[in-house]
Amino acid sequence: MKIKLISLLIFLLGIVVSSGAQVRPSDSNSPSTVTSADRKMLEDIKAEYRGGLFGFSKKEKGTIKFDDLNMRLQFYGENGKELFSIPYDSIQVVYPSQTKVQSGTGRAIGAIPFPGAGLGGSLLKKKKNYLVISFSDIEVNAQGTMNFLVDTQDLLFNSIYTIGEKAEMKARGDAYIRSRTY
To answer: What SS3 class is residue 177?
Structure first.
């Protein structure tokens, strides 16, 4: 009897969850359709460094700034001190990466000891926007990839545009690349 009741509740929860879906019209301002003319140059970028640079593995909130005089990108920590810099010529590729993760509310709902709560909690997700910079370190003759977490999708694509233009790279879709010279 208990098994039938639990099965019925899970079935009804599945119907309720699936019937709430709505068809959304396509967004005409999606990032892939926005041209570079719609992008703006940024003075600095609020970001959280997530790793990738040799010798610097600690996650750190801070600001990416541009030193156009010395042709380099700089990262300053929350204390205002420069933590590291990368010459524009060392940057090979700049591209976006977005991941969906379960929100804190979703994790809390999923932990409720009620049949089907885990399913409901797994549906609550949020997007995280990552600025990914692939570079070549000339000092040690190695390649690396740095990741920065930024707040919004618009900030992400404006950041890519700014870095790509300042480093004199070539646009390819949503990314900027440095063509090899043979």
So the answer is: strand
